[in-house]
Amino acid sequence: MHQTVKIAIGSIVIGLLVLGLKSLAWWLTGSVALLSDALESTVNVATAIAALVAIRIAQRPADQGHPYGHHKAEFFSAVLEGVLIIVAALLILNEAWRAFQSPRAIEQAGLGLAINAAAGAVNAFWCLVLLRQGRRLRSPALVADGKHLATDVISSAGVLIGVGLATATGWLFLDPILAMLVGVNILWSGWKVMTASLSGLMDEAVPTATLRDIREIISGSGDGALEAHDLRTRHAGRVTFIDFHLVVPGETTVADAHDICDRIEASLKTRLPEAQITIHVEPEHKAKHSGVLVI
């Protein structure tokens, strides 16, 4: 089983554990702010399941109907996660407004807050795991899940402080106000996750730093060629697609041109192991005297 799949399954288990703890905290206290925290955890479970399905699909090999593979499935998962986060935020805002109109007393605050704090600690630990491993494995679904958990951890901390103040002061209106703030924070988080994923679906180029590395590798390892132009990149999940035109001297044999391409591809794969590279070889008179000049 691939490590990405194992982490995605772990997210479901952690999500269910945290959901149970936060639901128990809400049931004990009756706090609408803690209810909002629990509602966000239901989204965590749903998105973890969506991420697992997307990762399994993304790992399928290329076939006749999908010659470039299924890597973009992870971007669809991240978009779905953004939509679900926004829906959860709207539900939280609705509950908060109703509670603001009719404030309710908070019961067993100490025990409820302690349970909620434990759930927050579990989320914080798993958030770090998702972000670190998601970036290492180049998995948009895991990174999106980790970023969402990060906002959950922050909002949970705010809820704990706010509910504690509401209990200590007797200002019951603080409870629904906190829930509203949580809802707004989650709404913003969902929007960021969704827009970041849409860039991947739109075949956005690799980051500037990565593109600079690609150009330097082509320049440094293309001995025997003259230039590379029309360089294009895009990314889909763990895979980076790179294609460009490579100009060689007119007297270069097919075998020698092939050797140059193999050398460039091998060098690029040391930097981007999952890269899929397409090189179009052209004779000297096709040079544009622009793009990447070979050293």
Q: Which superfamily, in CATH terms, is the homologous superfamily of the largest domain?
A: Cation efflux protein transmembrane domain
Structural class: alpha+beta
Q: Tally the structural domains.
A: 2
How far apart lie the N and C ends? 43 Å
Q: What is the string of SSEs from the N terminus onward? A: HHHHHHHEEHEE
Number of helices: 8
Envelope shape: elongated
Mean pLDDT level: 81
CATH architect. name of the largest domain: Up-down Bundle
Q: What does it look like?
A:
With about 300 residues, the chain is an alpha+beta fold. Helices cover about 70% and strands about 10% of the residues. The chain folds into 2 domains: about 5-200, Cation efflux protein transmembrane domain (Alpha-lytic protease prodomain-like, Up-down Bundle); about 210-295, 2-Layer Sandwich (Alpha-Beta Plaits). The chain has a 4-stranded mixed sheet, covered by helices on one side. α2 packs parallel to α6 (about 175-200), α3 packs antiparallel against α6 and α7 (about 210-220) runs antiparallel to α8. Keywords: Cell membrane, Membrane, Transmembrane, Transmembrane helix, Transport. It is a multi-pass membrane protein. This is Protein p34. One of its GO terms (molecular function) is zinc efflux antiporter activity.
Helices and strands in order:
Layout: H1 3-29, H2 32-58, H3 73-101, H4 109-136, H5 140-169, H6 174-201, H7 208-221, E1 227-236, E2 239-247, H8 254-271, E3 276-282, E4 292-293
Parallel strand pairs: 2-3
Antiparallel strand pairs: 1-2, 1-4
